[in-house]
Amino acid sequence: xxxxxxxxxxxxxxxxxxxxxxxxxxxxxxxxxxxxxxxxxxxxxxxxxxxxxxxxxxxxxxxxxxxxxxxxxxxxxxxxxxxxxxxxxxxxxxxxxxxxxxxxxxxxxxxxxxxxxxxxxxxxxxxxxxxxxxxxxxxxxxxxxxxxxxxxxxxxxxxxxxxxxxxxxxxxxxxxxxxxxxxxxxxxxxxxxxxxxxxxxxxxxxxxxxxxxxxxxxxxxxxxxxxxxxxxxxxxxxxxxxxxxxxxxxxxxxxxxxxxxxxxxxxxxxxxxxxxxxxxxxxxxxxxxxxxxxxxxxxxxxxxxxxxxxxxxxxxxxxxxxxxxxxxxx
Length: 330
Prior knowledge:
The protein is of the alpha+beta class. It contains nine helices and eleven strands. It has helices at 49-52, 54-60, 92-99, 104-123, 182-198, 211-216, 232-241, 253-268, 277-298; strands spanning 7-8, 11-19, 23-30, 35-42, 70-76, 79-85, 89-91, 126-127, 136-139, 144-146, 153-154. Helix 4 (104-123) packs antiparallel against helix 8 (253-268), helix 5 packs antiparallel against helix 7 and helix 7 (232-241) packs antiparallel against helix 8 (253-268). The radius of gyration is 22 Å and the shape is elongated.
């Protein structure tokens, strides 16, 4: 534990910013150039030097505007630490806790920014494995920065991480079996999207007895049941990201982002100005009908064999044509 005014070489500690399972992050000042930086000090200082360098080397391979950047790694007074950019602002977790659910367009924008960070990390063969609002920083300009890749590791030859690491409320079903894949990060993003759009998590942290229900998708209900302002297509994106079976989920971040961009584009379509009230009303009605038809064609409907309602994800009778829980046609 470091305290205010503690000096590590040229870095002067200002205050603690937060602590996690792998290290504590401090706000500090580079006294040579009078610049604020973030210092991450791993809890385990007794590892060999090559192990300590594992995270900073991983971070050095990432260079993206939506990922917290690394400056260097140093060891002073027998304390190893990582020097990173300091992001003035607050965590996405704090934004949701203080203001509740986000505006639809803001939630879409934030989701796209997190998706871009995931896309870049995945392109380098890196799974974050703990993607959640507490690990996303919202700068004062509105730019999101994904942080804390301390739980990440390079994608192994077997194409999955084999260590059970993450935050249970945001972990994909396969992560509980120690089988993290790229799509596991997208599940975590789906949970984060759900939380941004509704202000709450889709389910409590799964207890051991709930894992089978999690595997079957029975813990997730449509976010539209909690916020009717969510467009149907956006709800579909969230539910696809939260598909319990990896093969039913988005496989790569660009796929998810493409669907989010389509939803955002549809929301930006506005009726032409200067029209008579009656004509505008008629055009609005026609546009609404057309949009509803498009949505109906694009919405991924579950087949009877799938056994779950496309809308609320509750189990269905094999021949049911309407959900007995939310009454949506199948």
